[in-house]
Every structure is written in C-alpha cells, then in structure tokens.
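Following up on my earlier message about flavin-adenine dinucleotide. Here are the inputs again, as you asked, copied directly from the submission form:
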Amino acid sequence: MHQADLTGATPAQIRQADSVCPFSDASKDEDRIAAERYGDLPSDSRIGRYGSIHAGRLTDDARVMGSSSGGLTSWFLGELLDRRLVDGVIHVGRDGGRELFGYTISRSAEDLLASRKSMYYSTTLAEVVREVRGDGLTYAIVGVPCFITAMRHLAEVDADLRAQFTWHVGLVCGHLKSQFFAESLAWQAGVRPEHLEAIDFRVKNPSRRSYSYDYEVRAHGRLPRRRRTLSALDGSWGYGAFQPAACNFCDDVFAETSDIVFGDAWLPRYTDDWRGTNVVVTRRADADLILAEGVDDGTVLLEPLTPDLAAQSQAGNFRHRRDGLRVRLADDLAAGLSVPRKRVVPGYEGVSADRMALIRQRRAMSVLSFEAFARSKQTRRLSSYTRPMRAAIARYRKVESAGQSLSTRARAKLRSLLRRG
Ligand SMILES: Cc1cc2nc3c(=O)[nH]c(=O)nc-3n(C[C@H](O)[C@H](O)[C@H](O)COP(=O)(O)OP(=O)(O)OC[C@H]3O[C@@H](n4cnc5c(N)ncnc54)[C@H](O)[C@@H]3O)c2cc1C
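Thanks, got it. Here's what our run produced:
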C-alpha cells in the first residue's frame, strides 16, 4: 500500500505536507472548503452542499454494462472532454505496469471508455501530478473524497495546479482497499497473488439485484474466473477487510469538496434493477446543465432525490462515519492516543453497547486482515488468512445478530405499549 515517507524531509517540507494532507489538523476541513466554493448552496450535514440530487443512469444498456453503476461518471467525464472544458481527465485505470491499477491521463472519450468501473485499490497521485504540473493544460481529477480534498489543499499552495485542475469529480466512498483485496478475491477464486494479471471488481449479474454483483479474475495465460463477490469471505464491505487505518478517521461520504459526485443508489427501488443506478449530487450550475442536456437528448435518465433519500442510499457508510467515528475517536483518546480534529464530537452518547462492540470488532478485523493476509503470502497458504478472519467474522455476526434481536424485541415492546396506550 502507498504510504507517505517523511524520511529525510526538512521541517519546512513537513509543514507543507501537513497543510496538504486531508487528515491533518493544519489543513482546512471539508466544511470550510465547501463554504468557500459553494457557499450559496444549501447544506446537509450528511451530503454536504448540494445544487441538485438525482438517481439515474445512461439509457444505452451496452454502455451501462461496461460501467460499475449507471455509467454516468465516465459519460460525464467524456462530456467534459468533448465540450473542450478540459484537456485531460486524471482518473484511475488499468496500470499495465507493476501494479494492477494506477492514476492515468485520458485525453479522449475512447481512452475513458477503456478505464471504466470501480477500482478498489490503493493508488497515488504523486507521479501524475508531477507529470502535468505547469504543462499549460487543464484537467478534471476523479477521486474518492480524501483524494479530492488533498487536491483542493494542494491547489492552495501551488498556483500552477490551481489554474490547471478546473473540475473535481468525486466518487462516493465507503472505504479504500489495499492491493490485498484484489489478491485475496483472486486467491479465493483459485488464482494465486503472483499469477494475478487482471481483476474486474464489478461484473453485473442479470439474475440478481444490483448490489449482488460478481468479480472476475484472470491469471496469466488462463481463462477468466468469475465469482459472486458476496460469496467471498471478505466480499462484504461491512467487514472492513483491508481498509487503510486512515479511513477510520474519515467523515466525508459524498466527496463534499467535489464539483459533482457519483455513487450507487443503494435504495430498494433502484437495486431491484440489476443494471445499476447512480446517485448524483451536483455543486456547480454548469454540471447541472451538462446533465440536463443529456436528459434532453435522451442519453441520460434522471429522477430527483431528496437529501434524506441520498443519505439513506449510504446508510451503512453513515453509521461507520458518524457514530463509528465518534466511538473510535473516544476510544483512542481514552487510550492516550492523538486523534485528528473531525466534524463529529468524540463520545459514546446514544450509541448502544451492541453497536459499540460492532464498531470495535470491525476495526479489529481491518487490522487482522492485513496481518493475516501478509502471513498467508509468506506461508503460501490462504488458510493463514481465512481461518482467523472467518473466526473474527463469526464474532462480528454474533454481535450483529444480538443487536438485531434486541432491536426486534425493543420494537415489539414499543408496539405492545402503543397497543396498550
Ligand atoms: C474505493 C471506492 C469505494 C467506493 N465506495 C462506495 C460506496 O460505499 N458507496 C457508493 O455508492 N459508491 C462507492 N464507490 C463508487 C462506486 O463504486 C462507483 O464508482 C460509482 O457509483 C460510479 O459508477 P459509474 O457507473 O457512474 O462509473 P463508471 O462509468 O464505471 O466510471 C468510473 C470512473 O471512475 C474512475 N475510477 C474508478 N476507480 C477509481 C479510483 N479508485 N480513483 C479514482 N478514479 C476511479 C474510473 O477511471 C472511471 O473513469 C466507491 C468507489 C471506490 C473507488
């Protein structure tokens, strides 16, 4: 996984890095950046500032099939290029080098089409930013919330980049994954990490709901193998497998500092459709115009959503980033650790004992996943990872079902009180 290396850095360089890091107390938080940029828009404590909120997708099913969700992200980026609003798009694509995925630059709609879908992988902006800095061209940058915020910070201290990065396109984020996620999914499908050549994290399956997608892996010179993601040990995002520690301190789900953000509309009325549907939040009038023209010419289907529905589409994320974050901050403070300043107040108030246990168990599982998978790669036995991880997941499920039956009991009691009342 990519990690900042401060070896040999001077105090001045460290101060500069501090002002750019999205998790540092020395940098502006998402509320401040958004207020400066989109201060005339209404604000919601969960999704940030918003101009419009929609669920939607492309009307061309063939295009949608090649995308993770409704295909609106790659389409919108293509529009930015076609309308010459930017000279290039900086996004994650298949790397073709030592890593499976990495940040790349697309300069045509065809380039963009070749790198669609979600890449749940740890990447760095370092090389690509170095490559384009001062080249006199303009770019749209695509990223999960912390990458977009880092670019906002960087633009404040670098006038070249400030002029060059004219569009910030966010992806809703549950948490990032390390390279181990791809390797673990592949190994569970029978492809050892050293043989893994390609992975597609999001293959749609017409026989299931949109959240129950497949993944496909390919070993060098072999036919691809496909499996249902939720059937993999670590396929559920709730288990937090291979989640970098920084994500434990993130409170931004809807990339609040981006001009437009795309995610999955994980709401029953949309997940029934296996093809996938986006949730989209805009923060710039020209983004709304592009979407509206897409609707007018029949390329795009959109339905308005309320802020509540948009937030509901990421209900699990908000539990992790709000109550979960409060508990993790309070735990670390109680342990004498330093924590970053966040937009939630550390504490346990209003969080049930079962939920607290679940939050702590998920955090422990993230740590365990890294240690155990590293051991698996050393021993060359997948069971060095799956055995302890399976036991941890069983503990997690036990706490979860205890919490659920408790709330079922609480609901039954409330119903009987109401009946009596
Ligand atoms: C780590 C991660 C976690 C996510 N978590 C959630 C979540 O919890 N809830 C949710 O609703 N959505 C989440 N998403 C977003 C979701 O997976 C889809 O990317 C989104 O719905 C867009 O779908 P689409 O069909 O419009 O995109 P496509 O039309 O398939 O286009 C995707 C575009 O995003 C770019 N891209 C893919 N991965 C990355 C990356 N890692 N960094 C930068 N650019 C990238 C591609 O290059 C492509 O241009 C997450 C995405 C990532 C990368």
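One observation from looking it over: The longest strand covers residues 196-203. Hope that helps, and feel free to reply on this thread.
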